[in-house]
Amino acid sequence: MAAYLHKECKLRLFCTDIPPTSIIITFHNEARSTLLRTIRSILNRTPMHLIQEIILVDDFSNDPDDCKLLINLPKVKCLRNTERQGLVRSRIRGASIAQGYTLTFLDSHCEVNKDWLQPLLHRVNEDSTRVVCPVIDIIHLDTFNYIESASELRGGFDWSLHFQWEQLTPKQKAQRLDITDPIRTPIISGGLFVIQKSWFNHLGKYDTEMDIWGGENFEISFRVWMCGGSLEIIPCSRVGHVFRKKHPYVFPDGNANTYIKNTKRTAEVWMDEYKQYYYAAQPFALDRPFGNIESRVKLRKNLHCESFKWYLEKVYPELRIPKDASIQKGKIRQRQKCLETKKETNHEIPKLTLSPCIKPKGEDASAQQWTMTGSRIEHVASHLCLDMDMFGEGAEVDREIVVNPCESSLMSQHWDIVSS
Ligand code: LR7
Ligand code: MN
């Protein structure tokens, strides 16, 4: 593992006379080797007086020993959930027993780099409303090598509320006088950050109704910015993380449903009238249950937070506001028959067919539901878009109406309603 720190970081002095932090790591069925790598790297590369404790929250992994055996290591404590809670409620549980001045959250498959903690704690110690993240390097999924990632990135997202890393604009780069300066970020990726404990509590911790995985980073990011804090990435702090292609664990309610529930709660509580753009990008969310949000709405009111409009103007002016957020929902009918998709064995993509519009009881009516947002027509049940495939060449071209994965840049997926 190379250090990858900017040489300028050596010249920067970080105060080390700081109160210790509680490191909180939640996990569900993490491989023992990666969990151990996370903890060993912390113990090897952190001045001991900065660690109050390392709190592991075992989110009901299959093997209870994963957590129990680790308390033999210095500073390590272990809590085990008696049922699967998901990362939000697990982190809150860890935070509730934390005795440090700050909370440092990490995923369970990380390797912290040399001098990773001081720059983070230093920033929060100066101003307790700052929530700060390291630069996240890559631990290779196959080789487990530690690979340096680009350091001039910040967190961004699109209206379907999917996180993405973004390059700084030339103007933002020019404004940074020193490459070691913190990077203000509209959103954090979610897993690796330091927050002062009483500020975390004051701001309402997390939304405890969010399940398993996903969306909580939007909620906490909007909340921190809109309610008086800020989010930063600290270039002199680096932590490696294993980026996985798919979730190595089960979602009891399904992956998509859980993500929609969590992001819908975020949109409903924090995005004001701008939530229409979320629904336009994610029409499937319109009908999905999302629980009760009263207490979070009340929290926002009690904290006297800014509007989402303020957030867009002050924090994320780069997010483009779509021209058209209209959504139409319904069936596509020809006489008594309606357009629906039909899954064929051995084919990943279903075929289009016309069937009687009234489905017999017990059959899924959503097979005939379509939404039109902008010029895109999406099949509600499969999330696929109405498209046109072309075969052959020149005068011999054959066209066929099909469904395909949605891609807004494809002209063959653009449709207009023309009233006759
Ligand atoms: O039911 C669960 N219970 C858990 O305790 C599901 C997960 N977990 C644990 C899990 O073992 C892991 O330690 O929660 C942690 C995060 O889960 P991951 O590693 O599967 O998530 P991720 O790395 O794919 O996703 C990122 O976005 C998540 C949104 O909910 C969380 O905020 C993750 O912490 C976050 N990870 C990072 O920010 C690391 C950088 C990745 C990027 C971009
Ligand atoms: Mn992770």
From TrEMBL:
Residues 328-415 form the Ricin B lectin domain. InterPro entries: GalNAc-T, Glyco_trans_2-like, Nucleotide-diphossugar_trans, Ricin_B-like_lectins, Ricin_B_lectin. It comes from the Eukaryota. Residues 22-203 form the Glycosyltransferase 2-like domain. Belongs to the glycosyltransferase 2 family. GalNAc-T subfamily. Keywords: Disulfide bond, Glycosyltransferase, Golgi apparatus, Lectin, Manganese, Membrane, Signal-anchor, Transferase, Transmembrane, Transmembrane helix. The keyword Membrane applies. Pathway: Protein modification; protein glycosylation. This is Polypeptide N-acetylgalactosaminyltransferase. The gene is GALNT14. Its EC number is 2.4.1.-. It is found in: Golgi apparatus membrane. It is a single-pass type II membrane protein. Its cofactor is Mn(2+).
